[in-house]
Design a protein that fits this description.
This is DJ-1/PfpI family protein. By secondary structure, the protein is an alpha/beta fold. The chain is 32% helix and 22% strand. The protein is globular, with a radius of gyration of 15 Å.
Length: 190
């Protein structure tokens, strides 16, 4: 089964996190939602006050292998993800092994760019953060940017979360599977 890690923290954008979790699970993907809070708490308070219960703490994911690692955005959620050393270690290994990783909203700028992982990579993010995509080939208009060579998928924000999540399914399981997930959801992507 395809395994995906989704990292969350206090201040994560809940619309993005829940949309991604939901769509990937509809596709039959094994999703692990991991808290990146230093307190080891599994219950996070998202950016609009919604409580989300993680499956485990990020430390439990250290020796696991994932087909894809996803970073929802939100502030200060993205900042917490950036500051989480276990997540940084997992992401570094994923990127060095040329495996899929994805980020939406503030996370491409706050997490990936600040770690120096976007040099020469095609990416986008939340419009007000696009100037912080240091070293990236920034696409300011695309809702979702897929850099096949660098195994990176990025997106702009809450309004693009569904398209982003369906792009994740397509990259992992193919266009036909993404369409079969999109159709009963009554999206225009079907």
């Amino acid at each position: 089964m395809t395994k995906v890690l989704i990292a969350i923290a206090d201040g994560t954008e809940e619309l993005e996190a829940v949309c991604i979790i939901d769509v990937l699970r509809r596709a039959g993907i094994e999703v692990t939602v991991a808290s990146c809070m230093p307190t080891d708490s599994l219950l996070i308070t998202a950016s609009r006050g919604v409580k989300i219960q993680a499956d485990c703490h990020i430390k439990a994911c250290m020796n696991q292998s994932y087909k894809l690692i996803v970073l929802p955005g939100g502030i200060p959620g993205a900042k917490h993800l950036y500051e989480c050393q276990p997540l940084t270690d997992i992401l570094e290994k994923q990127i060095n092994n040329k495996q899929w990783h994805a980020a939406i909203c503030a996370s491409p700028a706050v997490v990936l760019a600040q770690h120096g992982w976007l040099k020469g990579v095609k990416a986008t993010c939340y419009p007000s953060f696009q100037d912080k995509l240091t070293g990236a080939q920034v696409d300011k208009t695309a809702a979702v940017v897929i850099d096949q060579d660098n195994k990176l998928i990025t997106s702009q924000g809450p309004g693009t979360a569904l398209a982003f999540a369906l792009a994740l399914v397509e990259v992992l399981l193919g266009k036909e599977k993404a369409q079969s997930v999109a159709q009963p959801m009554v999206t225009h992507a079907a």
